[in-house]
């Protein structure tokens, strides 16, 4: 889905009624092979079936060709893409356990450095009030 979405990005979806799906929206859909895996592609064609299910044809933005399958969405709602959290720019998180520890430590030091001066001035104010 590059250039909009890159491998490693965290995607945010919201449920939307299936009948409201529009051409151009990006959906999270199950692979047709029954593996339970999902894929994210853009809707390029939509047809409402007589039984009220919705059939869509999709294409990945980085793919030169349209997907050679159509998928029928039988559920009442479908996950629609709304935002990207570019986590690929946070290498510490993807560095495993120790990367997470390093990130947490760095964030803790930043918080302490921001809170410490406020706490010291507040302590002085309290001490001054007793004089």
What does this structure look like?
- The protein has 131 residues and is of the alpha+beta class.
- The chain has 2 domains: 78 residues, SH3 type barrels (Roll); 40 residues.
- The protein is built from 1 helix and 6 strands, in the order ββββββα.
- The strands form 2 sheets. Strands 2-3-4-5 form a 4-stranded antiparallel sheet, with no helix packed on it. It has a two-stranded antiparallel sheet with strand order 1-6.
- A hairpin with a 7-residue loop joins strand 2 and strand 3.
- It is elongated and about 80 Å long.
- The N and C termini lie far apart (66 Å).
- The mean pLDDT is 82.
Question: Can you tag this structure with a few keywords?
Answer:
131 residues, alpha+beta, SH3 type barrels
Helices and strands in order:
Elements: E1 10-17, E2 26-30, E3 38-48, E4 54-59, E5 70-73, E6 77-85, H1 97-129
Antiparallel strand pairs: 1-6, 2-3, 3-4, 4-5
Write a brief caption for the model.
This protein has 131 residues and is an alpha+beta fold.
Could you give the count of β-strands? 6
Helix count from the secondary structure assignment: 1
Share of residues in strands: 25-35%
N→C terminal distance: 66 Å
Radius of gyration: 24 Å
What integer is the average pLDDT? 82
CATH architecture of the largest domain: Roll
Spatial arrangement of strands, main beta sheet? 2-3-4-5
The count of domains is 2
Q: Per CATH, what is the topology of the largest domain?
A: SH3 type barrels
How would you characterize the largest beta sheet?
Answer: 4 strands, antiparallel
The helix/strand class is alpha+beta
The CATH class of the largest domain: Mainly Beta
Q: Which shape, going by the Cα principal axes?
A: elongated
The parts where pLDDT drops under 50 for at least 5 residues are none
């Amino acid at each position: 889905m590059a250039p909009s979405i890159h491998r490693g990005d965290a995607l945010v979806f919201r449920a939307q009624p299936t009948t409201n799906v529009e051409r151009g929206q990006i959906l999270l859909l199950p692979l047709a092979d029954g593996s339970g895996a999902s894929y994210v592609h853009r809707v390029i064609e939509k047809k409402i079936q007589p039984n009220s299910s919705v059939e869509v044809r999709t294409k990945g933005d980085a793919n030169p060709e349209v997907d050679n399958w159509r998928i029928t969405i039988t559920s009442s709602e479908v996950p629609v893409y709304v935002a990207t959290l570019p986590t690929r720019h946070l290498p510490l998180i993807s560095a495993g356990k120790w990367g997470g520890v390093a990130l947490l430590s760095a964030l803790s030091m930043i918080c302490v450095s921001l809170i410490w001066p406020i706490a010291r001035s507040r302590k002085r104010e309290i001490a001054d009030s007793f004089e």
